[in-house]
Design the sequence.
C-alpha cells in the first residue's frame, strides 16, 4: 500500500512544509507584533498586501514568484550567478509554500498579540524590564497558543499548496513533487489507486493539524 515512492513524496512534503513554516516564523512574529501594537500611516494598505495570497488565485502568486525568481529577472539572475537556483528546484517549493502559508500564520499571531493586555507589559516595564525581556517573558508566553495554532494552520496550508508550487518549481518526480502535485500527476496518468493513497494521507495530516489548531484556539478562549 505504501510504496517507496509514497514514502518519498510524503517525507519530502513534510520536510519542505516544516522548513517553510520555520522560515516564516521569526519574520511573521515580529511583523504580527508590530501590526498589533503600533499605528502608522498606510498600515491597513500594507496589511492588505501581506494578506493578498489568501485571496489571489495561487497560480497568480506563482506567476509573480516565477517572474521574481526566474533567471531573466534581476533577483533570479543575481541568485543564479551565486549558485542559488530557485525555479524547478526544491527551494522553489519552499518559497511557494512559505508565501502561501504566511498570511494564515500572520493573522493568527497578530490576533494573539492584540489580545495580550498591554497593562501587563507596562507593569513589567515599570519594574525595569527591557522591551526585549518583556517581549520574551510576558508577551510571547501570553500569546503562544495563538502563535502555535497559526503555525499549525500554516504548516497544513503548506502541505496542500499546489498552484504557486507547480508554476515556480514544476511537478518533477523525486525532486519537487509534493503530495498535492503527486495526486494531480497520478490522476492525470490514470493511476487512481496511487492517488487515493496520497489523498488519504493528505486528509489525515490536514485533519490532525487543523484539529490541533482549533483545540488550541478553543483552550485560549476558555482560559
Sequence:
Amino acid at each position: 500500500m505504501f510504496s517507496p515512492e509514497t514514502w518519498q513524496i510524503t517525507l519530502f512534503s513534510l520536510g519542505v512544509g516544516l522548513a517553510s513554516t520555520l522560515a516564516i516564523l521569526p519574520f511573521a512574529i515580529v511583523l504580527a507584533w508590530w501590526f498589533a501594537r503600533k499605528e502608522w500611516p498606510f498600515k491597513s494598505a500594507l496589511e492588505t498586501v501581506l494578506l493578498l495570497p489568501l485571496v489571489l488565485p495561487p497560480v497568480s502568486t506563482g506567476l509573480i514568484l516565477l517572474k521574481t525568481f526566474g533567471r531573466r529577472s534581476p533577483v533570479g539572475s543575481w541568485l543564479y550567478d551565486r549558485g542559488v537556483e530557485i525555479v524547478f528546484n526544491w527551494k522553489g517549493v519552499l518559497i511557494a509554500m512559505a508565501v502561501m502559508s504566511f498570511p494564515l500564520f500572520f493573522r493568527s499571531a497578530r490576533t494573539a498579540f492584540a489580545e495580550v493586555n498591554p497593562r501587563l507589559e507596562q507593569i513589567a516595564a515599570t519594574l525595569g524590564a527591557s522591551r526585549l525581556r518583556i517581549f520574551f517573558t510576558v508577551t510571547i508566553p501570553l500569546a503562544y497558543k495563538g502563535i502555535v495554532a497559526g503555525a499549525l494552520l500554516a504548516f497544513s496550508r503548506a502541505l496542500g499548496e499546489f498552484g504557486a508550487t507547480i508554476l515556480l518549481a514544476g511537478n518533477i518526480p523525486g525532486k519537487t513533487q509534493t503530495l498535492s502535485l503527486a495526486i494531480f500527476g497520478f490522476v492525470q496518468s490514470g493511476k487512481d489507486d496511487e492517488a487515493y493513497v496520497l489523498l488519504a494521507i493528505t486528509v489525515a495530516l490536514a485533519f490532525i493539524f487543523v484539529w490541533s489548531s482549533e483545540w488550541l484556539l478553543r483552550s485560549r478562549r476558555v482560559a
Remarks:
- The first helix runs from residue 4 to 37.
- The radius of gyration is 20 Å.
- The chain has a mean pLDDT of 92.
